[in-house]
Structure formats: C-alpha cells, structure tokens
Design brief:
alpha/beta; 9-stranded mixed β-sheet; single chain
Length: 247
Amino acid sequence: MRRILLFAAASALFGSHGPRTAVRLCSFPAITLWAWERHEDLRRLDPSRYAVAYLAETIFIGDKVSTVARRQPLLVAPGAKLIAVVRIEAHSGHANLSDPGLPGIIAGIISAWGHDGRTAAVQVDFDATQSQRAFYGQMLRELRSRLPAQMPLSITALASWCAFDDWIGQLPVDEAVPMFFRMGPEHPPAQVSGWQYPIHEPFCRGVAGVSTDEAWPELSPGTRLYMFHPRPWNPIALNNLEHSLGL
C-alpha cells in the first residue's frame, strides 16, 4: 500500500481553516479500524494506537422495520475503544419513511448500543438520498438526545456531502467521516496517492475514511483515519498498514 502523503501546511482537502475539533473524540486514537461482518481477531492491536469501529447491527427499513445483529466474532485487546457501527438500509422506492414516529423508533434501536458498557462511541452508516435527509436529520436529533451526554456520535458521509452539499452542517454529530473509497463512477479510484478533493463542511475536516486497496487522497497532519480493509484484518495487512503510516 502506498505511503500516506503528509504536508506541513494544511492541504486543500481540508481548507484554510484547519480541522474541526470534536471534543468528545479528543481521547480517541488517531487510527480506527473498521471491522465489518466477518470474523475479526484484533487482539494484537495496541489500544493506545487503534480504536475499532465494528458493525454491530443492520437496520432494514421497508414496509416495516427489521434488524440483524452482528453474527461474526470480534476479538479485541483489553482496553480497546469500541465504536458500535449501525448500518441503515432503506432503499428508495421500498422504504416507507412517512411514519412520524419512525425516527424515534430507529433512534431507540441505535441508542441501545450507546448504553452498552463496552461502547465508547456510536457511528451511524446511512447513504441517505435527498428525499431521506429530513428523516435522517430527525432521527439523529432523537438519537443524540438518548445517548449519554459525553458519548461521541459519528456518521459516515458521502464525500459529496462534505464538498458540494450543505445539509449536514446542522446535524447533532461530532464528526462526519468522508468516505474516500468506493466513490462510484463520478470519481473512479485514483492510481496514485495524493489526489485532492475539496472539503468545505467543518464536520468533515480532520477525519477521513480510506481503504487499504485504493490510493489515498492528500491528507493534512493530524487527520484521524478510519481504515477499511476488503477482507478480514490479518497480520500481513496490519503490518502493511503500519509501514504505510510509518509506525
């Protein structure tokens, strides 16, 4: 994997005002590994260097709401900061979001993870379409009110939300993680690391979601990284990652 490109000056990726400081996340390690729905053994990770954001549950919204909890084992080192990730699937044309009570129902499901003693933060993963944004915003407001006051609330974000849209600026979240991989046909994968993408939304500054199998964008010093790996993490992948980060 290509070595990350760091620059002394703030890069164009995050703009001239520098990263936004998320107070609730200040104590978290600079690197978080996403652990998706597969057997993950991360016991060798140093908890002072890495947090783990694991898929805890998937919520399916159609004519009714159904949930599927994580099925695969997750093994982590004692003391590791765990971020419970809840994925929402609500395919346009099939999901009925008209019920005014639905945001509260979904928020109630997700907030349960915030009251699990092992959870250090909650992250919501939802590729909301434009017509679903009002629902998503209301759900996040409900969720924030139900989480412990000091618990961080994170969301993943399409990169376009952070660059060209302005709808996430009022959301009650600590960070929005721009996803700089699997970006779709409008932005095919770059061949060389250091490509630029304009980030204007403060919630998205100072944090980035990247993958081990795609070239990374230009990143400013101090950027918190969420790392995706398309297969289960293993010693080789972790060693390659640490080499890329200069650890």
